[in-house]
Automatic annotation (TrEMBL), chain A:
<keyword id="KW-0408">Iron</keyword>
<dbReference type="GO" id="GO:0046872">
    <property type="term" value="F:metal ion binding"/>
</dbReference>
<protein>
    <submittedName>
        <fullName>Nitrite reductase (NAD(P)H), small subunit</fullName>
    </submittedName>
</protein>
<keyword id="KW-0534">Nitrate assimilation</keyword>
<dbReference type="GO" id="GO:0042128">
    <property type="term" value="P:nitrate assimilation"/>
</dbReference>
<dbReference type="InterPro" id="IPR036922">
    <property type="entry name" value="Rieske_2Fe-2S_sf"/>
</dbReference>
<dbReference type="InterPro" id="IPR012748">
    <property type="entry name" value="Rieske-like_NirD"/>
</dbReference>
<dbReference type="GO" id="GO:0051537">
    <property type="term" value="F:2 iron, 2 sulfur cluster binding"/>
</dbReference>
<dbReference type="GO" id="GO:0004497">
    <property type="term" value="F:monooxygenase activity"/>
</dbReference>
<keyword id="KW-0479">Metal-binding</keyword>
<feature type="domain" description="Rieske">
    <location>
        <begin position="23"/>
        <end position="119"/>
    </location>
</feature>
<keyword id="KW-0001">2Fe-2S</keyword>
<dbReference type="Pfam" id="PF13806">
    <property type="entry name" value="Rieske_2"/>
</dbReference>
<dbReference type="InterPro" id="IPR017881">
    <property type="entry name" value="NirD"/>
</dbReference>
<dbReference type="GO" id="GO:0016705">
    <property type="term" value="F:oxidoreductase activity, acting on paired donors, with incorporation or reduction of molecular oxygen"/>
</dbReference>
<dbReference type="GO" id="GO:0008942">
    <property type="term" value="F:nitrite reductase [NAD(P)H] activity"/>
</dbReference>
<keyword id="KW-0411">Iron-sulfur</keyword>
Length: 119, 861
């Protein structure tokens, strides 16, 4: 196994998403691979895509790809452009800024973002 | 016979131009007319073309490429719609039979008669067949038209030996073709050396050695005395002038050409004592209303030109004269560069050193078949030269003819390491130097453009023999940034070399060490991550990275398809494709696939690659599905990866009455050998059991067609939106030779191709094209083959089925859940509705609670 896995294995932090006034506990931070996403289900049925970038920061955006309607953004590839992290939809490859939810390839489109913490 | 009247109002009252002969020069003339607005469409002339052959003009210069897979259609010189667009009346298969100069009419074989104001003869030449006894026996051919080649190909099927009479340019080409058809080939040349017209004695000797090394038998200094035939009337041998004889099943005469001037003779036009229609500097014959251009003309300098470039110049001159301008053709040089049987041969200017007081600078190395000679005048000007074995300098030296060389001539002929060679870049050429001699295009004209396709389109440079393309490439501005993406300034093939030589095993390591400054330390992007992931995967056993694509950091590099080892479909579900090597499957396994599909409610479809695609699986179902498939003996089909897809096969010799080899077994062997091989793009293959080609192998990246002697390997084929027939790489290979050659070919492709570049585009892009690839993988010109084979051996030895490796490992299985916080909850957005007794995605669900309208817009964009 590589060193990265060892590092994350020691990571005992928990990821929480803003939910109304409180925080909804999602999972252990170690379940996320840097550069890759996972999907989480909120109590109200909404789907959230969670990512960890290379610097260790956690991001959360809506899981639904607005271009196709499919709930797949968590399965896209993470990258960075000009220092800002983005995810590219696995279907038609449009990119979304992980901090603002804005689509980088179409000014008119954006996805909701969620407040998230890992501690 | 009634005189044919102009068919449309457009051409009423305008002069009529009749062109006899629609060969290379005839077509060039029509294009020159169109460029000058002398067409029916422009309302300025009626143009009628009488074409003897059963097809419009084609590229005779490239005729031999028919044997390496170019179809007659590929060879066409006529842009689709050209005749219609300009309103030109082309009469295919209807030659001119007579000319009445008094009445100014031409009568065609169909009986139709055309009046002309201007008549242009472009009848070309015919192959000269020496009047030896037996020359008409069955099995004697000439080498000039597509029909000739078709006939030779057909006859060669039942022949073992072939002989070519004539060791000139065309004779050697024909010999190469016969050899390519699997015949034991002889060349009989009357002169004491090969290519007597183009090269001198030393050059001929270098050529001879190389050609003999290729397995051709050359007889120089002997003439053909008689062709003998058996009782069935078919050729069985030849008697030579030195008293010896030769057994042969087929004879190709290539003893020179003669101008086709019979039509001109019959109507009383002046012809030369040794043939050729006499023309003046404007290419006008002895009748001022009649012109002659191309190989049928005896030019004003007293020569008949047997090359296409001078013919093109004549065509342009005549079009210019008809348009009312001044133009002339007073002669051309006989420079040629060819690749004969893989050997570069070039001669230019005064190749034989005929000028008074000139001296030769010669370098010869008989071991490597190299011969270079420059002819230098008394005052130091370059007068001409001969290059055999390595003619790279032709492109720069020819345009320098007539000038004093900027460096000592011996430096230009010596090999590297011996004080030379000084490579003279094309930048040292003056602006008026002719770079493309086929189309007479100067350096200045080329430098007005920025890309090769643009140069070809606007100036035609590079569209003739192609020998100038390399120099054109050097003259054009180099694209500023060919980097892979915003993160790397290197191309894919450069990154491949970096990973291979430095043994880089992680993406992050590569990005931080070789990425662009601003991208280092970042997350990369969706372009370079999978590309680098694929490079590392294809080199994994060699550089010591994990062979499992989802280990450690590699997991984060893969597109979702690779990440879940399945293909993402439009509603977020995945499809599953088990490997069915060669398309052969037992009933038991078929039943398992059926049961799995039924139990998981999957939509099933037979693919074009002879296997079965199961659609509609949720992420969490993938491991369950694969557990059953792996238990039944299936492996991943890699339908999700940029890697080998399938090797299709026809049923072959085992069952088919036409088959000559076991195509199914070969397909299975190849599919199992290359399964899992990560490459720049997907790879497809097929094996056909005979020339009927039921497996459509020539539409594949590498296709194999059985012959009675073994296998023919074709490469670079493609179906899809830009279909391309694969080119013949090598023929009559044994099983082992075939596999070894494919190993090398694939590894060379993986090493040098760009991201998402299929073999077809790669082959068209790389410098030197198919010939270069053949040099590298067949003749090992770069000394790479051992390494390429070793890399493939590493791959074959390191292969593990990804799905078997996944379902056996709980850690790896953890990713196959829809929700990280609710592993047991199925994806609520993946739903299906019935269609034709199966299911299809329920897209209504995806319209979603919000943004329904925007979604529609987005989808259609
Ligand atoms: C195998 C091969 C390789 C060659 N390689 C090279 C090379 O590398 N470089 C180079 O410069 N040259 C090469 N050549 C020579 C080149 O092909 C010719 O110079 C060129 O084709 C001449 O063009 P053309 O139009 O004058 O004659 P052609 O192309 O022969 O066209 C003449 C046409 O006129 C037709 N015709 C004749 N009589 C009549 C009639 N009465 N009515 C109607 N139609 C008629 C003929 O059927 C023919 O189609 C090669 C030739 C061959 C065969
Ligand atoms: S390619 Fe030949 S061997 Fe194969 S099925 Fe067709 S006819 Fe039979
Ligand atoms: S020199 Fe033949 S195409 Fe340019």
């Amino acid at each position: 196994m590589t060193t990265q896995t060892l590092e994350t294995a020691q990571d005992t932090r928990t990821i929480r998403l803003a939910d109304g006034d409180g925080w909804f506990t999602v999972c252990d931070r170690e379940l996320l691979t840097p550069g890759r996403g996972v999907a989480a289900l909120l109590p109200d049925g909404r789907q959230v895509a969670l990512f960890v970038d290379r610097s260790g920061r956690v991001h959360a955006i809506d899981n639904r790809d607005p271009f196709t309607g499919a709930y797949v953004l968590s399965r896209g590839l993470v990258g960075s452009a000009g220092g800002r992290p983005f995810v590219a939809s696995p279907l038609l490859k449009q990119r979304f800024d992980l901090e603002t939810g804005a689509c980088l390839d179409d000014d008119e489109v954006s996805v909701p973002v969620f407040a998230v913490r890992a501690d | 016979m009634p005189v044919s009247t102009p068919p449309t109002a457009l051409t009423a009252g305008v002069p009529t131009i009749v062109v006899v002969g629609h060969g290379m020069v005839g077509q060039r003339f029509l294009e020159a007319l169109a460029d000058r607005g002398l067409t029916p469409a422009a309302g300025t002339a009626r143009v009628v073309v009488l074409c003897e052959e059963p097809r419009p003009a084609y590229d005779r210069v490239q005729l031999t490429s028919y044997f390496s897979g170019r179809t007659p259609e590929d060879l066409s010189l006529v842009e689709p719609g050209f005749m219609e667009r300009h309103g030109i009346e082309l009469r295919v298969g209807d030659p001119a039979e007579s000319v009445d100069r008094e009445a100014r009419t031409v009568t065609a074989r169909s009986g139709e008669t055309f009046s002309y104001d201007t008549l242009v003869l472009a009848t070309g030449s015919y192959p000269f067949v020496p009047p030896v006894p037996g020359k008409d026996a069955e099995g004697c051919f000439v080498y000039r038209t597509i029909e000739d080649l078709l006939a030779i190909e057909e006859y060669a099927r039942n022949a073992r030996t072939g002989a070519v009479v004539g060791g000139g340019l065309l004779g050697l080409e024909a010999a190469g073709a016969l050899k390519g058809l699997g015949l034991d080939t002889h060349v009989v040349e009357f002169a004491p050396r090969l290519m007597p017209v183009q090269v001198d004695e030393g050059g001929g000797a270098a050529l001879l050695r190389t050609i003999e090394n290729m397995g051709l038998t050359v007889h120089t200094g002997v003439g053909t005395q008689e062709v003998t035939a058996g009782e069935d009337g078919r050729v069985d041998g030849m008697c030579l002038s030195d008293g010896s004889s030769l057994e042969t099943d087929l004879v190709v005469f290539s003893a020179g050409v003669r101008p086709r001037d019979q039509l001109a003779r019959d109507c009383g036009l002046a012809v030369g004592p040794r043939g050729g229609i006499v023309v003046d500097e404007e290419c006008r014959t002895s009748d001022s209303a009649v012109f002659a251009i191309g190989e049928c003309a005896l030019a004003s300098d007293g020569r008949v030109y047997g090359l296409v470039a001078p013919g093109y110049e004549m065509a342009l001159a005549v079009a210019e004269v008809i348009a009312g301008n001044a133009a002339s053709f007073t002669g051309a040089d006989l420079s040629t560069k060819l690749k004969l049987l893989g050997v570069d041969v070039a001669s230019f200017g005064d190749a034989h050193g005929a000028a008074e007081g000139c001296l030769d600078v010669v370098y010869a190395d008989s071991r490597s078949g190299l011969y270079k000679k420059l002819v230098i005048g008394q005052d130091g000007t370059l007068l001409g030269g001969v290059l055999v074995g390595d003619a790279d300098q032709y492109g720069t030296l020819r345009p320098m003819t007539g000038t004093v060389l900027p460096v000592a001539p011996e430096q230009l002929v010596l090999p590297a390491g011996a004080g030379g060679p000084v490579t003279l870049g094309p930048s040292s050429l003056p602006d008026d130097a002719v770079i493309c001699s086929c189309h007479n295009v100067t350096k200045g004209a080329i430098c007005e453009h920025t890309t090769l396709p643009e140069v070809k389109k606007c100036t035609k440079a590079g569209t003739g023999c192609g020998s100038c393309v390399k120099v054109i490439g050097q003259l054009l501005p180099q694209p500023a940034d060919q980097g892979l993406c915003g993160c790397f300034e290197y191309t894919r093939s450069e990154l491949y070399e970096i990973v291979r030589t430095l043994g880089v095993t992680t993406y992050a390591g590569l990005l931080d060490s070789h990425g662009r400054e601003q991208a280092r330390g970042g997350d990369g992007c969706e372009v370079c991550k999978p590309t680098v992931g694929s490079i590392i995967a294809s080199l994994a056993p060699t550089v010591g990275a994990s062979g499992y694509v989802l280990d450690g950091e590699q997991a984060a590099l893969q597109d979702t398809n690779d990440h879940f080892l399945a293909n993402l479909q439009r509603n977020g579900s995945y499809s599953v494709v088990p490997r069915i090597p060669g398309g052969e499957i037992t009933p038991e396994k078929l039943i398992v696939i059926g049961e799995v599909a039924r139990d998981f409610g999957l939509y099933t479809k037979i693919t074009g690659g002879q296997r079965i695609d199961l659609f509609g699986a949720r992420v969490d179902q993938l491991p369950l599905i694969w557990t059953r498939l792996v238990d039944a003996g299936f492996e991943s089909g890699h339908a999700y990866g940029k890697s080998l897809r399938t090797v299709k096969s026809c049923v072959g010799q085992t069952w088919c009455r036409y088959g000559v080899q076991d195509s199914v077994k070969m397909a299975i062997d190849l599919e199992l050998r290359y399964r899992g091989l990560r490459s720049p793009h997907k790879l497809k293959s097929a094996v056909s059991g005979c020339a009927r080609e039921c497996a459509e192998a020539r539409g594949k990246d590498f296709g194999i067609i059985a012959t009675a002697q073994g296998w023919n390997l074709y490469v670079g084929g493609n179906g899809g939106a830009t279909p391309r027939h694969a080119d013949l790489l090598a023929q009559d290979l044994s099983d082992a030779e075939l596999v070894r050659l494919i190993d090398r070919f694939l590894m060379f492709y993986i090493r040098t191709a760009d991201r998402l570049e299929r073999t077809s585009t790669w082959l068209d892009r790389i410098e030197g094209g198919l010939d270069h690839v053949r040099d590298v993988v067949v003749h090992d010109s770069l000394g790479l083959c051992d390494e390429l084979e070793r890399l493939m051996a590493d791959h074959v030895g390191g292969y593990r089925d990804e799905w078997a490796a996944t379902i056996g490992d709980p850690e790896r299985l953890r990713r196959f859940v829809t929700f990280v916080n609710a592993p047991d909850a199925p994806d609520p957005s993946v739903k299906f509705v019935p269609e034709r007794d199966q299911v299809k995605p329920d897209l209504d669900i995806l319209a979603g609670p919000v943004l329904a309208i925007r979604t529609l817009e987005g989808t259609s964009s």
